[in-house]
Amino acid sequence: MNDPLPHIPALLEDMAGRIAALPRFQATAPLLVGIQTGGLWLAEALHQRLALQEPLGKLDISFYRDDFSRIGINPSVQPSHLPWAVDGRHLLLVDDILYTGRTIRAAMNELFDYGRPASITLAIAVDRGGRELPIQADILGCRLEVPAGQQVKLSGPEPLQLEWVTHE
User: Considering the entire predicted model, what is its pTM?
Assistant: First the structure.
């Protein structure tokens, strides 16, 4: 039996508090960017909790994945939308689960196609370990040990909750 999973609203409250306390965000609020799909749900919730004035950005990294040529196009590709200039701005990149690091690498590649940000801060709800690239979260909700054959998944958007998924 798997351990109980953390409650997402509590993780979001804690993450929002730590984001607001970051020195780089004291003078200028970050521009939030959510990675489709779970990262966007979390970014929407953080955007609201932080009461940010700038609109939320969203990324669909489907064309930036390093396995694109092997697995083909995602049937539910959405357009990315960054409603502001990226150059010289502090970005807060949000995703749900950090595993190998490849999704974050793809997201950063796409962000740099839009311009050169002053910084990118990474906020992740769950770090499940298993990194293949040297990427870590600056703001982390929690770390989970995920048993072999299992996966943790964010479901939503209402309600946002973590669930265990078993691979057969």
Answer: 0.91
Alpha helix ranges (H) inside 21-157: 24-27, 38-50, 68-71, 102-114
d(CA 150, CA 133): 21
Rounded Cα gap, residues 61 and 65, in angstroms: 6
Full residue range of the structural domain in which residue 25 is found: 8-65+85-145
Encode burial over 110-126: b for 16+ CB neighbours within 10 A, e otherwise: bbeebeebeebbbbbbb
> Is 165 a domain residue?
no
Residue 79 has pLDDT above 70, yes or no: yes
* Of the candidate ranges 2-16, 20-34, 64-78, 131-145, the one whose mean pLDDT is the lowest: 64-78
- How far apart, in whole angstroms, are the C-alpha atoms of residue 90 and residue 22? 11
Please report which residue ranges of 51-79 form alpha helices under DSSP H: 68-71
Quote the pLDDT of residue 77. 72
Mean residue pLDDT of the chain comes to 91
Residue 26 has pLDDT above 90, yes or no: no
CA distance 69 to 73: 8
Domain-located, residue 134: yes
Q: Is residue 1 part of a domain?
A: no
